Amino acid sequence: MFRQAAAGETLVLIDPDQSYQKPGELFLLVAADVDGSAARASRRAVEASGARIGGVTPLSEAVDRLGAQAALDGVIVAAEGADVELLDRTIDSIGLLARERLARLIAHGGEREIDLLWARLGGVAQAILLDPAPIDIATAIALPRQRRAWHDVSRDEEQRLRQLDAEVARFAQTLARLSDPEARGAASMFGEKRPDDAGEVDGGARVPTAAEVRSVIRARRLRDAHFPPDLFADPAWDMLLDLYAAELEHRRVSVSSLCIAAAVPGTTALRWIGTMMDAGLFERHADQHDRRRAYVALTDAARAGLNGYFDAVGRAGLNPA
């Protein structure tokens, strides 16, 4: 199977005979550039998984090709470098045709395309990947149709995904507990000084300012200058803090912006976003003026938990981390 390359290391194929999917599964590859590196990565991932590429078609011909395709198990859209207007015109039809054929849909793109893909395919595609390596595409192919079923996943990937779900569940439980005013201490956050833009929430908890939350984020990023960045990777908390600060600033956050805030590879960040949505901590908001964009926001439960956390930390005389 594939091994994830470390920083600055070339990704190599360790075991090309390792098969994840049932032999013979047929995938159609739709690519903005059929000869580009993104299309080549998808081909390698499909072949390594034991499936087959039934055809490669440019994005401009994808709808006609899907409409004429008799048998199909999956569709992969490699959108990197796509003409945005063309992608905008065709992606809904690709998603609809894939659904009609009961074909799994996997889409990947760069920062330029990811917001459109996430906005339009977020409830349709099995996986949406940002700047994926072949290992990421192969993992998406390996996952069965039900996202939470594990029986077709490699042992290492199964363990990693279980850990991810367990961490998110722990976050959700902690935030829910902190949203309970009885679970918090009994002094005021950052002493008695209350900035003008600080507010009150249910139970008398003090809401921090956006600047205070941003200072916590900056302090977390300063660690990267002194230790390997992946040593303290904590994308769930980093994204929660970023969404919290943005909400306090009355600013909306796109999926591409949130991926950057996560401080992990894009595809890892997208996986966390999906898991946080499943856990009821994030929610999707459509852009009413631009169908090519959707935003990520905190749910009421996540907001209450963060309010409770910052209040509890302040009451204990501690600094948020």
CATH fold type of the largest domain = Arc Repressor Mutant, subunit A
The biggest sheet, with number of strands, parallel, antiparallel or mixed sense and barrel status, is: 5 strands, parallel
- The helix content is 40-55%
Specify the CATH architecture of the largest domain.
Answer: Orthogonal Bundle
The helix-and-strand class reads alpha/beta
CATH homologous superfamily of the largest domain - what is it? Winged helix-like DNA-binding domain superfamily/Winged helix DNA-binding domain
Shape: elongated
Order of neighbouring strands in the sheet with most strands: 2-1-3-4-5
Q: Please tally the β strands and state the result.
A: 10
Extract low-pLDDT stretches: 1-21, 146-155, 183-197
Strand/helix succession: EHEHEHEHEHHEEHHEHHEEH
InterPro entries: HTH_MarR-typ, WH-like_DNA-bd_sf, WH_DNA-bd_sf
Protein name: HTH marR-type domain-containing protein
GO molecular function: DNA-binding transcription factor activity
Domain HTH marR-type: 249-302
